[in-house]
Design goal:
Layout (H helix, E strand, L loop, with lengths): L9 H12 L4 H8 L3 H12 L4 H13 L10 H9 L1
């Protein structure tokens, strides 16, 4: 099964939350929505602590903003060189 590195949609999170309430196994839910089991386990662990789906999604987005390349600060000399070209 391929590991999907895509963002969980609200629909998928809702399905996972309903499955958690119904006490379905996480690996079965992962098969149903065609996601990696670790993704479902991560949401399950979050729900076990009492967090809501909105809390999980907010936490996910805050962490996602810290990923990636940081903005580059150019010196004034470099900026003028680029603008003169």
């Amino acid at each position: 099964m391929p590991l999907n590195k895509r963002k969980e949609t609200t629909n998928e999170l809702t399905i996972i939350a309903h499955s958690f309430v119904q006490k379905l196994k996480a690996y079965r839910v992962a098969q149903m929505i065609n996601r990696c089991a670790e993704t479902v386990y991560r949401v399950y662990r979050s729900l076990e602590t009492g967090a809501s789906i909105a809390d999980y999604q907010d936490h996910y987005m805050r962490n996602k903003q810290r990923c990636g390349r940081k903005r580059t600060q150019l010196s004034l000399a470099e900026l003028t060189y680029i603008n003169d070209k």
